[in-house]
Structures are given as C-alpha cells and as structure tokens.
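step 3/5: co-fold with NDP
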Amino acid sequence: MNKGTLALLVHGGTENWSAERWKSRFDVVCGDRGVVLLPDAAFDPALVHYAAVWKPAPGELAGLPNLRVIFNLGAGVDALMADSGLPKVPLVRVAVGDLTNRMTEFVVLHVLMHHRQEPYLRECQREKRWAPRFQWPANAISVGIMGLGTLGSNAAEVLGRLGFRVSGWSRSPRQIEGVECFHGTAQLGAFLQRTDVLVCLLPLTSDTRQVLNRGLCARLNRDSPMGAPVLINAGRGGLQNEADILECLDDGTLGGASLDVFAKEPLPPDSPFWTHPKVVVTPHNAADTDPDEISKYVARQIERFEAGGRLENVVDPARGY
Ligand code: NDP
Ligand code: OXD
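step 4/5: write tokens
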C-alpha cells in the first residue's frame, strides 16, 4: 500500500525557513514516503495525509481533502489558530529539547545582560569611561516568567540554578521545585509585584493579546534594586502593546527591554525600537527550530500514529495553544 504523502508548506522568508532546506531533511527521514513542497499545481492534493507547516497562507490547508494530521514546525500556533479554514484534524506543535535549550539560552543571556548592566557597560566602553557601578548579587533579583509551559519551566529551573529568585505565572496551577508559582488572573498582581525582570513566554491567544501593556508594567516591583523593572518578550509580538511599552521606557516605568518579537515582522526600519537606548532588539530568533531535530520528531510521530499510537503535544483548539 502507498504511504500517504507528507506535504511541506513553509513560508517563513528567513534563512532558517528555506523550504528547500526543510524538504531535503524530510526526504531523508521519511524513507519511502513521498514528500512534496506545496504549492505545486501539478500535484494531486488528495494524496496528502500529513502536512508539516510554518505560516501557511490562510485557507491553504483547506485544499487538502484527505489530511489526517497537521504538524506545526514551531512551538507557537497562533498563525494557524487565526485560519478560519483550518481543517479539523489534530494539530501537533513542536516541543523538543533542542528548541527548549535554545530558548533557555536566550532567556539566560538577556536576564544576565540586564542584571550585569551590559547596555551601560557597552556605553562606557564607547565613551572610554572606566566607571563600574554597584554590582548586586543574583539572589537580590526576582525574575518572573509569564508562561510556565515547555519553555518557561526550563528557563525557570536554569535561572534558579544561577541563583536568581524565580517565580512564574500560568493559566492553571503548576509546581516546579524552587519556583514560586502563581496562576490565573487573581494571582497576577502578586506575581507582578515581586518581579524585577519580567520574561514573557506566553502563547498568543485571545486571552493573552496585548497583555504586556502599561497597566501591567506599572504593577511590576517599583522598588527593584535595578532601579526600574525590565521586560523580556520572546513569546509573540501580539502579546505587547508597543505604544505602551515605548511610553513606559520613556517615563521610567520600565528600565529596559529585550524584545525578540514584534507586532509587525520584520520590524519596520522606522520603528523607534531600533534606536531606543533602553531596548535590545533581536530578529525573532530567540530559538530557531532546527530542521534536523524537527523533521525526525515529525517522522517519529507519524510512525507512531500509523501504528495506532498517540500523537504528542497536540494543541487544544479551545485554549488556542
Ligand atoms: P506551552 O504551551 O508549553 O506553555 C504555555 C504556557 O503559557 C503555559 O504555562 C500556559 O499555562 C501559559 N498560558 C497560556 N495562556 C495563559 C493565560 N491566559 N494566562 C496565564 N498563563 C497562560 O508553550 P511553550 O512554552 O512551548 O511556548 C510558549 C510560546 O513561546 C509559544 O507559543 C511561542 O509563541 C513562543 N516561542 C517563541 C520563539 C521565538 O523564537 N521567539 C520560539 C519558540 C516559541 P498552563 O500551564 O496552565 O497551560
Ligand atoms: C516558534 C517560533 O513558535 O519560532 O517556534 O516562533
């Protein structure tokens, strides 16, 4: 019997999202299963049983009548959730050690950058000024992580090992050793109040859109040893109200920010974030998905599914993540 074809729909635009690069990896791991890059007008869409996707165009997946499973090639599924024509088949997201470790590297790098006053020290270097400032210990700083899922919980554990006081906030109750866990709207205030460095690793859903706004920033610890609290967002741009964040940086409500994600990507050249002295901008590359790791992850899941096993990391459409 012919194995159902795996279709690749990859529209990322950047080097890591080169569709040909992904196809060459899937060709290796899929063995005798056909792998096709879509769109391809010459290919019969009825042959496709599996789709591996990154930012497919809205409605594109609806044209595959025999689809059984959709594999999102990243962790965040907000682009797919926004597709009103998304086929009602299981949607699997990425949750693998490789991606998790990369995100933890990003979070640790940026927490340390602000904690160790790197923006200030680089400014001193540019000005040839030998002017060390007081250096506070890690255990004087409270890092609060919004989102204690696959990525947030790992970052929390590693930051804890570095000596930071770590807390986290999630939708449902969580228990992580060494991490003070808060959940739900009722506990958001207590979580924010103790936070000097806020790290956002939430998914973008109707509940979380623009959660990073002026009201939230104003509730962060006003007595931070760092002078003013710092925001690090590596979730999605839609989580932040960008006008509010700029205002908060300008009026001192925030002392600094590391932003990897933006409402509009690529960040337009005229965005004030590019040149803001308190902002570190990275181009949505906090954690790249590695084609080798992820193609193997998808191939393993298809094998298990065809043998009657359970798919892992299936998105709950009602929650939107
Ligand atoms: P998970 O689904 O594993 O975790 C999501 C966490 O957010 C959970 O703890 C969940 O709570 C919490 N959450 C969701 N909604 C709410 C809410 N309304 N209130 C409070 N907490 C909420 O996701 P991952 O950790 O794998 O990924 C998180 C996000 O990181 C992705 O959705 C993606 O947007 C982003 N990302 C960005 C990358 C980059 O390069 N910038 C790379 C990879 C991912 P609960 O535990 O109760 O379910
Ligand atoms: C992801 C991302 O969601 O790369 O995996 O943004």
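step 5/5: annotate
Residues 60 and 184 are 35 Å apart (CA to CA).
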